[in-house]
Amino acid sequence: MIKILLFFLLYLVMFTLLLNHPMSMVILILLVTININMIISSILNLSWNSYILIIIFLGGMLVLFIYIVSISSNEKFNKMNSLMLFPLIMTPSMIFIETPSMFCNNNNFINSISSMYMSSMMYFTLLIMIYLIITLLISVKISNNKLGPIRQK
After folding, report:
1. Same domain, 95 and 36
2. Is 80 found in the same domain as 131?
3. pLDDT tens digits for 45-80?
């Protein structure tokens, strides 16, 4: 499975040379991040590192997405050749064929999820949730449309 993921990662990196629209580049960076997280998770057999990495990357992508949308005009996407999309469709099916048990429900997966929300971790989870809500409210308050760097004329 790691070989297929590495092949898909190589394809995505080579695909960046063909893109010229900033939104498609952001989507491609997100796909590369998800692919790297799957590789890390399969090599280490520990998903916490990949969860943390993807949360950090998604936060950064959200900031980049807002910045690019506010700056770029209404540019249109060029139509892609369907031959370029073929590896994007084939890779998930190749992964499923190689390891079909990855998508089945097993007891280990349920146990690992339930251990994440143990009663001893409840206060820590609540603290993180409150911190994220406060951070969201502060960032909304700071980014006033009339005073911020993304103001409209």
Report:
1. yes
2. no
3. 767 777 777 788 788 777 877 777 677 666 666 666
Q: Please name the amino acid found at residue 70.
A: S
| Residue 14 located in a structural domain | yes
What is the Cα gyration radius of the chain?
A: 20
Q: Let me know whether 12 and 82 are in one domain.
A: yes
User: Which domain range does residue 61 map to?
Assistant: 2-104
Helix (H, G, I), strand (E, B) or coil at 100: helix
Residue 60 placed within a domain: yes
C-beta neighbour count of 50 within 10 angstroms: 20
Give every CB contact of residue 33 below 8 A, 6+ residues apart in sequence. Answer: 53, 54, 57, 58, 61
Structure tokens at 134: 């406060």
**Which one, of 58, 65, 41, lies nearest residue 132 by Cα?**
58
Unique residue bearing structure tokens 């999309």: 85
In degrees, rounded to 5, the angle at the alpha carbon of residue 98 between the alpha carbons of residues 93 and 100 is 80
Confidence (pTM): 0.48
